[in-house]
Amino acid sequence: MTINQAFDPGIRVRGIEKSFKDVHVLRGVDFDVETGSIFALLGSNGAGKTTLVRILSTLLKADAGTATVHGFDVGAKPGDVRESISLTGQFTAVDEVLTGRENLVLVAKLRHLKNPGVIADDLLARFSLTEAGNRKASTYSGGMRRRLDIAMSLIGNPPVIFLDEPTTGLDPQARIEVWQTIKQLAGQGTTILLTTQYLDEAEQLADRIAILHKGTIIQNGTLAELKQLLPPAKVEYVEKQPSLEDVFLALVGDSGETDTADDDRTVAARKEPR
Amino acid sequence: MTTHVLGDTGVLTGRSLRHILRSPDTIITTAVTPVALMLLFVYVLGGAITTGSDASYVNYMLPGILLITIASGVAYTAYRLFLDMQGGIFERFQSMPIARSSVLWAHVLTSLVANLVSVAIVIGVALIMGFRSGASVGAWLAVAGILILFTLALTWLAVIAGLSAKTVDGASAFSYPLIFLPFISSAFAPTASMPGPVAWFAENQPVTSIVNTIRALLTQEPVGGDIWIALAWLIGILVVAYAFAIATYRRKIS
Questions:
Q1: If you measure CA to CA, which chain B residue comes closest to A109?
Q2: Against a cut of 0.95, is the pTM above it?
Protein backbone atom coordinates (compact mmCIF):
# COMPACT_ATOMS: atom_id res chain seq x y z
CA MET A 1 0.00 0.00 0.00
CA THR A 2 1.50 3.27 -1.07
CA ILE A 3 -1.32 5.36 0.30
CA ASN A 4 0.04 7.69 2.92
CA GLN A 5 -1.84 7.57 6.14
CA ALA A 6 -4.00 10.65 6.39
CA PHE A 7 -4.53 12.46 9.66
CA ASP A 8 -8.18 11.47 9.80
CA PRO A 9 -9.23 8.60 11.98
CA GLY A 10 -9.54 5.21 10.30
CA ILE A 11 -13.23 5.76 9.74
CA ARG A 12 -15.21 8.99 10.20
CA VAL A 13 -18.98 9.02 9.78
CA ARG A 14 -20.97 12.27 9.91
CA GLY A 15 -24.72 12.61 9.51
CA ILE A 16 -25.17 9.64 7.19
CA GLU A 17 -28.78 9.15 6.10
CA LYS A 18 -30.30 6.53 3.85
CA SER A 19 -33.86 5.68 2.89
CA PHE A 20 -35.27 2.87 0.83
CA LYS A 21 -38.52 4.15 -0.63
CA ASP A 22 -40.54 5.12 2.47
CA VAL A 23 -38.33 3.38 4.99
CA HIS A 24 -35.89 5.74 6.68
CA VAL A 25 -33.17 3.22 7.58
CA LEU A 26 -30.38 5.57 8.69
CA ARG A 27 -31.39 8.90 10.23
CA GLY A 28 -28.09 10.69 10.75
CA VAL A 29 -25.32 8.43 11.98
CA ASP A 30 -22.13 9.88 13.50
CA PHE A 31 -19.08 8.12 14.89
CA ASP A 32 -15.30 7.84 14.55
CA VAL A 33 -13.19 4.73 14.57
CA GLU A 34 -9.64 5.23 15.72
CA THR A 35 -6.95 3.74 13.48
CA GLY A 36 -5.93 0.28 14.64
CA SER A 37 -8.89 -0.25 16.95
CA ILE A 38 -11.86 -2.59 16.89
CA PHE A 39 -15.20 -0.84 16.78
CA ALA A 40 -18.36 -2.85 17.24
CA LEU A 41 -21.66 -1.68 15.85
CA LEU A 42 -24.35 -3.34 17.85
CA GLY A 43 -27.96 -3.54 16.82
CA SER A 44 -30.89 -5.83 16.35
CA ASN A 45 -31.90 -7.18 12.96
CA GLY A 46 -33.05 -4.38 10.69
CA ALA A 47 -31.32 -1.66 12.71
CA GLY A 48 -29.40 -0.55 9.61
CA LYS A 49 -25.99 -2.08 10.35
CA THR A 50 -25.59 -3.73 6.96
CA THR A 51 -26.81 -0.62 5.15
CA LEU A 52 -24.15 1.43 6.91
CA VAL A 53 -21.41 -1.09 6.08
CA ARG A 54 -22.53 -1.11 2.44
CA ILE A 55 -22.29 2.68 2.33
CA LEU A 56 -18.81 2.67 3.91
CA SER A 57 -17.60 -0.01 1.48
CA THR A 58 -18.89 1.99 -1.55
CA LEU A 59 -21.59 -0.52 -2.47
CA LEU A 60 -24.33 1.97 -1.74
CA LYS A 61 -24.59 5.76 -1.89
CA ALA A 62 -25.80 7.69 1.13
CA ASP A 63 -28.68 10.15 0.71
CA ALA A 64 -27.01 12.68 3.01
CA GLY A 65 -23.96 13.08 5.22
CA THR A 66 -20.30 12.31 4.66
CA ALA A 67 -18.01 9.45 5.51
CA THR A 68 -14.28 9.01 5.11
CA VAL A 69 -12.44 5.72 5.24
CA HIS A 70 -8.66 5.80 5.64
CA GLY A 71 -8.90 9.50 4.86
CA PHE A 72 -10.83 9.08 1.59
CA ASP A 73 -14.37 10.29 1.08
CA VAL A 74 -16.59 7.33 0.15
CA GLY A 75 -18.66 9.41 -2.24
CA ALA A 76 -15.90 11.37 -3.95
CA LYS A 77 -13.06 8.82 -3.97
CA PRO A 78 -14.66 5.37 -4.09
CA GLY A 79 -11.68 3.96 -6.00
CA ASP A 80 -9.23 4.98 -3.25
CA VAL A 81 -11.59 3.66 -0.60
CA ARG A 82 -11.74 0.28 -2.36
CA GLU A 83 -7.93 0.22 -2.40
CA SER A 84 -7.93 0.68 1.37
CA ILE A 85 -10.64 -1.70 2.54
CA SER A 86 -11.86 -5.19 2.46
CA LEU A 87 -15.40 -6.29 3.13
CA THR A 88 -16.44 -9.56 4.68
CA GLY A 89 -20.14 -9.54 4.13
CA GLN A 90 -22.90 -11.16 6.08
CA PHE A 91 -22.99 -14.08 3.66
CA THR A 92 -19.71 -15.76 2.85
CA ALA A 93 -18.39 -14.52 -0.47
CA VAL A 94 -16.38 -17.47 -1.69
CA ASP A 95 -16.58 -19.07 -5.12
CA GLU A 96 -17.96 -22.51 -4.38
CA VAL A 97 -16.83 -24.03 -7.67
CA LEU A 98 -13.21 -23.06 -7.13
CA THR A 99 -10.90 -24.64 -4.58
CA GLY A 100 -9.88 -22.73 -1.48
CA ARG A 101 -6.48 -22.04 -2.98
CA GLU A 102 -7.95 -20.88 -6.29
CA ASN A 103 -10.23 -18.48 -4.41
CA LEU A 104 -7.22 -16.89 -2.71
CA VAL A 105 -5.21 -16.74 -5.93
CA LEU A 106 -8.17 -15.10 -7.67
CA VAL A 107 -8.38 -12.30 -5.11
CA ALA A 108 -4.59 -11.84 -5.08
CA LYS A 109 -4.60 -11.46 -8.86
CA LEU A 110 -7.51 -9.02 -8.75
CA ARG A 111 -5.56 -6.97 -6.21
CA HIS A 112 -2.68 -6.99 -8.72
CA LEU A 113 -0.20 -8.53 -6.30
CA LYS A 114 2.95 -10.39 -7.21
CA ASN A 115 3.29 -14.11 -6.46
CA PRO A 116 -0.41 -14.85 -5.89
CA GLY A 117 0.44 -18.53 -5.37
CA VAL A 118 2.78 -17.77 -2.47
CA ILE A 119 0.24 -15.44 -0.88
CA ALA A 120 -2.43 -18.14 -1.18
CA ASP A 121 -0.25 -20.81 0.40
CA ASP A 122 0.71 -18.51 3.28
CA LEU A 123 -2.91 -17.73 4.06
CA LEU A 124 -3.97 -21.37 3.79
CA ALA A 125 -1.36 -22.20 6.39
CA ARG A 126 -2.33 -19.29 8.61
CA PHE A 127 -6.00 -20.28 8.59
CA SER A 128 -5.37 -24.03 8.99
CA LEU A 129 -6.73 -24.72 5.52
CA THR A 130 -3.62 -26.16 3.89
CA GLU A 131 -5.00 -29.69 3.72
CA ALA A 132 -8.34 -28.50 2.35
CA GLY A 133 -6.65 -26.07 -0.03
CA ASN A 134 -7.17 -28.15 -3.13
CA ARG A 135 -10.76 -29.08 -2.37
CA LYS A 136 -13.71 -27.21 -3.79
CA ALA A 137 -15.04 -24.61 -1.37
CA SER A 138 -18.49 -26.17 -1.69
CA THR A 139 -17.21 -29.13 0.35
CA TYR A 140 -16.15 -26.90 3.27
CA SER A 141 -17.95 -26.70 6.61
CA GLY A 142 -19.46 -23.38 7.65
CA GLY A 143 -16.49 -22.49 9.83
CA MET A 144 -13.93 -23.37 7.16
CA ARG A 145 -15.87 -21.35 4.61
CA ARG A 146 -15.90 -18.35 6.93
CA ARG A 147 -12.16 -18.69 7.56
CA LEU A 148 -11.53 -18.81 3.81
CA ASP A 149 -13.79 -15.79 3.41
CA ILE A 150 -11.83 -13.81 5.99
CA ALA A 151 -8.52 -15.02 4.52
CA MET A 152 -9.63 -13.66 1.14
CA SER A 153 -10.37 -10.33 2.82
CA LEU A 154 -6.86 -10.07 4.25
CA ILE A 155 -5.09 -10.32 0.90
CA GLY A 156 -3.13 -7.17 0.19
CA ASN A 157 -3.23 -6.15 3.88
CA PRO A 158 -5.96 -3.52 3.60
CA PRO A 159 -5.67 -1.00 6.45
CA VAL A 160 -9.44 -1.03 7.11
CA ILE A 161 -11.58 -4.14 7.38
CA PHE A 162 -15.37 -4.34 7.56
CA LEU A 163 -16.80 -7.47 9.10
CA ASP A 164 -20.57 -7.69 8.80
CA GLU A 165 -21.84 -10.22 11.34
CA PRO A 166 -18.77 -12.41 10.93
CA THR A 167 -19.91 -15.16 13.29
CA THR A 168 -23.60 -15.41 12.49
CA GLY A 169 -24.44 -19.04 11.83
CA LEU A 170 -21.14 -20.43 13.13
CA ASP A 171 -20.77 -23.08 15.81
CA PRO A 172 -19.07 -22.02 19.08
CA GLN A 173 -15.62 -23.31 18.11
CA ALA A 174 -15.65 -21.57 14.77
CA ARG A 175 -16.77 -18.39 16.52
CA ILE A 176 -13.80 -18.49 18.86
CA GLU A 177 -11.47 -19.06 15.90
CA VAL A 178 -12.88 -16.04 14.11
CA TRP A 179 -12.54 -13.95 17.27
CA GLN A 180 -8.87 -14.87 17.57
CA THR A 181 -8.27 -13.89 13.97
CA ILE A 182 -9.92 -10.53 14.53
CA LYS A 183 -7.86 -9.84 17.66
CA GLN A 184 -4.65 -10.70 15.82
CA LEU A 185 -5.53 -8.30 13.03
CA ALA A 186 -6.20 -5.41 15.36
CA GLY A 187 -2.90 -6.22 17.06
CA GLN A 188 -1.19 -5.57 13.73
CA GLY A 189 -2.71 -2.09 13.40
CA THR A 190 -5.66 -2.86 11.16
CA THR A 191 -8.76 -0.76 11.77
CA ILE A 192 -11.77 -3.02 12.17
CA LEU A 193 -15.44 -2.16 12.02
CA LEU A 194 -17.49 -5.08 13.17
CA THR A 195 -21.25 -5.43 13.22
CA THR A 196 -22.87 -7.98 15.42
CA GLN A 197 -26.09 -8.82 17.13
CA TYR A 198 -24.29 -10.86 19.78
CA LEU A 199 -23.57 -8.77 22.83
CA ASP A 200 -20.84 -11.08 24.10
CA GLU A 201 -19.03 -10.75 20.77
CA ALA A 202 -18.82 -6.98 21.16
CA GLU A 203 -17.78 -7.47 24.78
CA GLN A 204 -15.00 -9.90 23.81
CA LEU A 205 -13.53 -7.95 20.94
CA ALA A 206 -14.32 -4.30 20.79
CA ASP A 207 -12.34 -1.31 22.03
CA ARG A 208 -15.43 0.81 21.54
CA ILE A 209 -19.04 -0.17 21.15
CA ALA A 210 -21.81 1.84 19.51
CA ILE A 211 -25.45 0.89 19.62
CA LEU A 212 -27.38 1.55 16.45
CA HIS A 213 -31.08 1.73 17.10
CA LYS A 214 -33.82 2.97 14.77
CA GLY A 215 -31.30 4.56 12.44
CA THR A 216 -29.16 6.53 14.90
CA ILE A 217 -26.35 5.83 17.33
CA ILE A 218 -27.95 5.94 20.75
CA GLN A 219 -24.81 5.11 22.73
CA ASN A 220 -21.11 5.09 21.94
CA GLY A 221 -18.33 4.30 24.36
CA THR A 222 -15.99 1.74 25.83
CA LEU A 223 -17.45 -1.30 27.54
CA ALA A 224 -16.68 0.27 30.94
CA GLU A 225 -18.42 3.50 29.96
CA LEU A 226 -21.47 1.66 28.73
CA LYS A 227 -21.64 -0.36 31.91
CA GLN A 228 -21.61 2.83 33.99
CA LEU A 229 -24.86 3.86 32.35
CA LEU A 230 -26.60 1.41 34.63
CA PRO A 231 -26.64 1.73 38.42
CA PRO A 232 -23.57 0.10 40.03
CA ALA A 233 -23.75 -3.65 40.32
CA LYS A 234 -24.74 -4.95 43.70
CA VAL A 235 -22.97 -7.95 45.04
CA GLU A 236 -25.00 -11.13 45.08
CA TYR A 237 -23.94 -14.65 45.69
CA VAL A 238 -25.23 -17.00 43.07
CA GLU A 239 -24.17 -20.57 42.58
CA LYS A 240 -22.07 -20.70 39.42
CA GLN A 241 -23.72 -22.91 36.85
CA PRO A 242 -21.84 -23.73 33.67
CA SER A 243 -23.60 -22.45 30.59
CA LEU A 244 -24.52 -24.95 27.91
CA GLU A 245 -21.75 -23.40 25.80
CA ASP A 246 -19.18 -24.19 28.53
CA VAL A 247 -20.44 -27.76 28.69
CA PHE A 248 -20.40 -28.13 24.92
CA LEU A 249 -16.88 -26.78 24.57
CA ALA A 250 -15.61 -28.87 27.47
CA LEU A 251 -17.08 -32.05 26.00
CA VAL A 252 -16.08 -31.45 22.39
CA GLY A 253 -12.78 -29.89 23.32
CA ASP A 254 -10.18 -29.34 20.65
CA SER A 255 -11.10 -32.39 18.64
CA GLY A 256 -14.27 -30.89 17.21
CA GLU A 257 -15.30 -31.70 13.68
CA THR A 258 -13.70 -28.53 12.38
CA ASP A 259 -10.39 -29.64 11.03
CA THR A 260 -8.17 -27.13 12.72
CA ALA A 261 -4.89 -27.85 14.31
CA ASP A 262 -5.34 -25.07 16.80
CA ASP A 263 -2.58 -25.10 19.35
CA ASP A 264 -3.35 -22.05 21.38
CA ARG A 265 -7.10 -22.00 21.53
CA THR A 266 -8.23 -20.67 24.84
CA VAL A 267 -11.80 -21.29 25.73
CA ALA A 268 -13.16 -17.99 26.84
CA ALA A 269 -13.85 -18.22 30.51
CA ARG A 270 -17.41 -17.32 31.25
CA LYS A 271 -18.04 -16.03 34.71
CA GLU A 272 -21.57 -14.86 34.79
CA PRO A 273 -24.18 -17.40 35.80
CA ARG A 274 -26.89 -18.32 33.38
CA MET B 1 -7.69 1.84 -12.20
CA THR B 2 -8.82 1.77 -15.83
CA THR B 3 -5.41 0.43 -16.81
CA HIS B 4 -6.42 -2.84 -15.18
CA VAL B 5 -9.56 -3.39 -17.25
CA LEU B 6 -7.93 -5.93 -19.55
CA GLY B 7 -6.02 -7.75 -16.82
CA ASP B 8 -9.03 -7.89 -14.48
CA THR B 9 -11.28 -9.08 -17.29
CA GLY B 10 -8.75 -11.76 -18.12
CA VAL B 11 -8.54 -13.00 -14.52
CA LEU B 12 -12.34 -13.04 -14.13
CA THR B 13 -12.84 -14.71 -17.51
CA GLY B 14 -10.41 -17.40 -16.40
CA ARG B 15 -12.58 -17.87 -13.32
CA SER B 16 -15.86 -18.37 -15.21
CA LEU B 17 -14.20 -20.56 -17.86
CA ARG B 18 -13.03 -22.74 -14.99
CA HIS B 19 -16.66 -22.96 -13.87
CA ILE B 20 -17.57 -24.32 -17.28
CA LEU B 21 -14.68 -26.78 -17.32
CA ARG B 22 -15.83 -28.08 -13.91
CA SER B 23 -19.38 -28.54 -15.20
CA PRO B 24 -19.00 -29.31 -18.91
CA ASP B 25 -22.61 -30.49 -18.89
CA THR B 26 -23.62 -26.88 -19.62
CA ILE B 27 -21.87 -27.08 -23.00
CA ILE B 28 -23.19 -30.57 -23.70
CA THR B 29 -26.75 -29.62 -22.74
CA THR B 30 -26.48 -26.60 -25.01
CA ALA B 31 -25.46 -28.85 -27.91
CA VAL B 32 -27.86 -31.76 -27.25
CA THR B 33 -31.14 -30.00 -28.02
CA PRO B 34 -30.04 -28.59 -31.40
CA VAL B 35 -28.54 -31.97 -32.34
CA ALA B 36 -31.83 -33.70 -31.45
CA LEU B 37 -33.75 -31.12 -33.49
CA MET B 38 -31.37 -31.70 -36.38
CA LEU B 39 -31.94 -35.47 -36.24
CA LEU B 40 -35.71 -34.91 -36.05
CA PHE B 41 -35.82 -32.52 -38.97
CA VAL B 42 -33.41 -34.38 -41.23
CA TYR B 43 -34.59 -37.95 -40.67
CA VAL B 44 -38.28 -37.48 -39.78
CA LEU B 45 -39.71 -34.22 -41.11
CA GLY B 46 -37.16 -33.17 -43.69
CA GLY B 47 -38.38 -35.55 -46.37
CA ALA B 48 -41.73 -33.77 -46.45
CA ILE B 49 -40.29 -30.26 -46.72
CA THR B 50 -39.61 -28.88 -50.19
CA THR B 51 -36.82 -26.35 -49.97
CA GLY B 52 -36.64 -25.58 -53.65
CA SER B 53 -33.00 -26.61 -53.92
CA ASP B 54 -31.29 -29.91 -54.64
CA ALA B 55 -28.92 -29.67 -51.70
CA SER B 56 -29.43 -32.09 -48.81
CA TYR B 57 -31.81 -30.89 -46.10
CA VAL B 58 -29.08 -30.87 -43.47
CA ASN B 59 -27.28 -28.22 -45.52
CA TYR B 60 -30.51 -26.22 -45.68
CA MET B 61 -31.33 -26.20 -41.99
CA LEU B 62 -27.89 -26.04 -40.36
CA PRO B 63 -27.79 -22.20 -40.18
CA GLY B 64 -31.06 -22.14 -38.22
CA ILE B 65 -29.84 -24.93 -35.94
CA LEU B 66 -26.68 -22.95 -35.16
CA LEU B 67 -28.76 -19.93 -34.15
CA ILE B 68 -30.91 -22.14 -31.88
CA THR B 69 -27.71 -23.48 -30.30
CA ILE B 70 -26.56 -19.98 -29.43
CA ALA B 71 -30.01 -18.82 -28.30
CA SER B 72 -30.19 -21.67 -25.79
CA GLY B 73 -26.52 -21.33 -24.78
CA VAL B 74 -26.78 -17.69 -23.67
CA ALA B 75 -29.35 -18.74 -21.04
CA TYR B 76 -26.42 -20.11 -19.04
CA THR B 77 -24.80 -16.68 -19.00
CA ALA B 78 -27.90 -15.20 -17.39
CA TYR B 79 -27.91 -18.14 -14.99
CA ARG B 80 -24.24 -17.77 -13.98
CA LEU B 81 -24.54 -14.01 -13.58
CA PHE B 82 -27.62 -14.49 -11.41
CA LEU B 83 -25.83 -17.01 -9.19
CA ASP B 84 -22.88 -14.62 -8.77
CA MET B 85 -25.23 -11.93 -7.54
CA GLN B 86 -27.08 -14.32 -5.23
CA GLY B 87 -23.85 -15.34 -3.52
CA GLY B 88 -21.70 -12.70 -1.91
CA ILE B 89 -18.96 -12.95 -4.56
CA PHE B 90 -20.49 -10.17 -6.70
CA GLU B 91 -20.39 -7.75 -3.76
CA ARG B 92 -16.84 -8.80 -2.97
CA PHE B 93 -15.80 -7.87 -6.50
CA GLN B 94 -17.69 -4.57 -6.26
CA SER B 95 -15.90 -3.63 -3.04
CA MET B 96 -12.48 -4.40 -4.50
CA PRO B 97 -10.32 -2.02 -6.54
CA ILE B 98 -11.08 -3.71 -9.85
CA ALA B 99 -12.52 -2.26 -13.02
CA ARG B 100 -16.26 -2.63 -12.56
CA SER B 101 -17.07 -3.39 -16.20
CA SER B 102 -14.68 -6.37 -15.97
CA VAL B 103 -17.27 -8.34 -14.03
CA LEU B 104 -19.73 -8.20 -16.94
CA TRP B 105 -17.17 -8.55 -19.73
CA ALA B 106 -15.82 -11.72 -18.14
CA HIS B 107 -19.26 -13.30 -18.37
CA VAL B 108 -19.69 -12.08 -21.94
CA LEU B 109 -16.34 -13.48 -23.11
CA THR B 110 -17.04 -16.76 -21.34
CA SER B 111 -20.38 -16.95 -23.13
CA LEU B 112 -18.60 -16.39 -26.44
CA VAL B 113 -16.11 -19.21 -25.82
CA ALA B 114 -18.75 -21.64 -24.52
CA ASN B 115 -21.14 -20.99 -27.40
CA LEU B 116 -18.44 -21.32 -30.04
CA VAL B 117 -17.52 -24.71 -28.57
CA SER B 118 -21.20 -25.77 -28.65
CA VAL B 119 -21.49 -24.54 -32.25
CA ALA B 120 -18.38 -26.53 -33.20
CA ILE B 121 -19.91 -29.68 -31.66
CA VAL B 122 -23.15 -29.17 -33.60
CA ILE B 123 -21.25 -28.60 -36.86
CA GLY B 124 -19.27 -31.78 -36.14
CA VAL B 125 -22.49 -33.79 -35.80
CA ALA B 126 -23.86 -32.15 -38.96
CA LEU B 127 -20.74 -33.26 -40.84
CA ILE B 128 -21.40 -36.85 -39.74
CA MET B 129 -24.99 -36.47 -40.94
CA GLY B 130 -23.80 -35.47 -44.40
CA PHE B 131 -23.44 -31.70 -44.20
CA ARG B 132 -20.99 -30.54 -46.86
CA SER B 133 -19.87 -27.09 -47.91
CA GLY B 134 -17.37 -25.96 -50.51
CA ALA B 135 -17.23 -22.50 -48.95
CA SER B 136 -13.92 -20.66 -49.07
CA VAL B 137 -11.97 -19.74 -45.95
CA GLY B 138 -13.18 -16.17 -46.38
CA ALA B 139 -16.82 -17.31 -46.46
CA TRP B 140 -16.29 -19.43 -43.33
CA LEU B 141 -14.71 -16.45 -41.59
CA ALA B 142 -17.73 -14.36 -42.55
CA VAL B 143 -20.01 -17.05 -41.09
CA ALA B 144 -17.91 -17.10 -37.91
CA GLY B 145 -18.11 -13.30 -37.73
CA ILE B 146 -21.91 -13.33 -38.02
CA LEU B 147 -22.22 -16.07 -35.38
CA ILE B 148 -19.93 -14.12 -33.03
CA LEU B 149 -22.01 -10.97 -33.51
CA PHE B 150 -25.17 -13.01 -32.91
CA THR B 151 -23.68 -14.47 -29.72
CA LEU B 152 -22.58 -11.07 -28.43
CA ALA B 153 -25.97 -9.48 -29.16
CA LEU B 154 -27.85 -12.28 -27.40
CA THR B 155 -25.35 -12.43 -24.53
CA TRP B 156 -25.91 -8.78 -23.69
CA LEU B 157 -29.64 -9.53 -23.66
CA ALA B 158 -28.81 -12.38 -21.28
CA VAL B 159 -26.87 -9.94 -19.08
CA ILE B 160 -29.99 -7.78 -18.74
CA ALA B 161 -32.02 -10.87 -17.84
CA GLY B 162 -29.41 -12.12 -15.36
CA LEU B 163 -29.07 -8.72 -13.66
CA SER B 164 -32.79 -8.08 -13.30
CA ALA B 165 -34.06 -11.59 -12.57
CA LYS B 166 -35.63 -12.36 -9.20
CA THR B 167 -35.36 -16.16 -9.45
CA VAL B 168 -33.09 -18.67 -11.18
CA ASP B 169 -35.92 -19.69 -13.52
CA GLY B 170 -36.61 -16.09 -14.38
CA ALA B 171 -32.96 -15.59 -15.31
CA SER B 172 -33.07 -18.17 -18.09
CA ALA B 173 -36.73 -17.84 -19.18
CA PHE B 174 -35.90 -14.95 -21.50
CA SER B 175 -34.23 -17.35 -23.93
CA TYR B 176 -37.39 -19.37 -24.76
CA PRO B 177 -38.79 -16.87 -27.28
CA LEU B 178 -35.30 -16.50 -28.77
CA ILE B 179 -35.08 -20.27 -29.28
CA PHE B 180 -38.51 -20.23 -30.87
CA LEU B 181 -37.84 -17.40 -33.35
CA PRO B 182 -35.91 -19.53 -35.90
CA PHE B 183 -38.97 -21.79 -36.31
CA ILE B 184 -40.94 -18.87 -37.72
CA SER B 185 -38.26 -17.95 -40.24
CA SER B 186 -36.66 -19.32 -43.34
CA ALA B 187 -34.57 -21.66 -41.17
CA PHE B 188 -36.55 -24.88 -41.75
CA ALA B 189 -38.91 -24.12 -44.62
CA PRO B 190 -39.07 -21.40 -47.28
CA THR B 191 -41.18 -18.46 -46.08
CA ALA B 192 -43.15 -18.56 -49.38
CA SER B 193 -44.87 -21.74 -48.15
CA MET B 194 -46.35 -19.95 -45.11
CA PRO B 195 -49.76 -18.19 -44.97
CA GLY B 196 -49.74 -14.40 -45.52
CA PRO B 197 -49.33 -12.82 -42.07
CA VAL B 198 -46.93 -15.54 -40.86
CA ALA B 199 -44.84 -15.18 -44.00
CA TRP B 200 -44.78 -11.41 -43.48
CA PHE B 201 -43.52 -11.82 -39.93
CA ALA B 202 -41.00 -14.47 -40.97
CA GLU B 203 -39.60 -12.33 -43.76
CA ASN B 204 -39.23 -9.25 -41.61
CA GLN B 205 -37.77 -10.69 -38.41
CA PRO B 206 -33.99 -10.74 -37.89
CA VAL B 207 -33.48 -14.51 -38.00
CA THR B 208 -34.50 -14.88 -41.66
CA SER B 209 -31.93 -12.42 -42.96
CA ILE B 210 -29.23 -13.97 -40.77
CA VAL B 211 -30.13 -17.52 -41.82
CA ASN B 212 -30.28 -16.54 -45.51
CA THR B 213 -26.87 -14.87 -45.27
CA ILE B 214 -25.19 -17.85 -43.59
CA ARG B 215 -26.87 -20.26 -46.02
CA ALA B 216 -25.74 -18.25 -49.04
CA LEU B 217 -22.18 -18.08 -47.69
CA LEU B 218 -22.07 -21.84 -47.09
CA THR B 219 -23.54 -22.73 -50.49
CA GLN B 220 -21.32 -20.22 -52.33
CA GLU B 221 -24.24 -18.20 -53.61
CA PRO B 222 -24.37 -14.41 -53.72
CA VAL B 223 -25.49 -13.05 -50.33
CA GLY B 224 -27.35 -10.15 -51.91
CA GLY B 225 -28.92 -7.51 -49.69
CA ASP B 226 -29.58 -9.98 -46.88
CA ILE B 227 -26.15 -9.55 -45.34
CA TRP B 228 -26.71 -5.81 -44.83
CA ILE B 229 -30.12 -6.38 -43.28
CA ALA B 230 -28.59 -9.09 -41.07
CA LEU B 231 -25.71 -6.85 -39.97
CA ALA B 232 -28.07 -3.94 -39.31
CA TRP B 233 -30.22 -6.17 -37.07
CA LEU B 234 -27.23 -7.68 -35.28
CA ILE B 235 -25.46 -4.41 -34.60
CA GLY B 236 -28.74 -2.72 -33.70
CA ILE B 237 -29.66 -5.39 -31.16
CA LEU B 238 -26.09 -5.46 -29.82
CA VAL B 239 -25.96 -1.69 -29.25
CA VAL B 240 -29.41 -1.48 -27.65
CA ALA B 241 -28.87 -4.56 -25.47
CA TYR B 242 -25.43 -3.32 -24.39
CA ALA B 243 -26.79 0.11 -23.47
CA PHE B 244 -29.66 -1.40 -21.46
CA ALA B 245 -27.35 -3.91 -19.78
CA ILE B 246 -24.91 -1.19 -18.69
CA ALA B 247 -27.78 0.98 -17.46
CA THR B 248 -29.20 -1.95 -15.49
CA TYR B 249 -25.75 -2.69 -14.05
CA ARG B 250 -25.26 0.94 -12.98
CA ARG B 251 -28.60 0.94 -11.23
CA LYS B 252 -27.69 -2.34 -9.55
CA ILE B 253 -24.32 -1.24 -8.18
CA SER B 254 -25.01 2.34 -7.10
A1: B11
A2: no
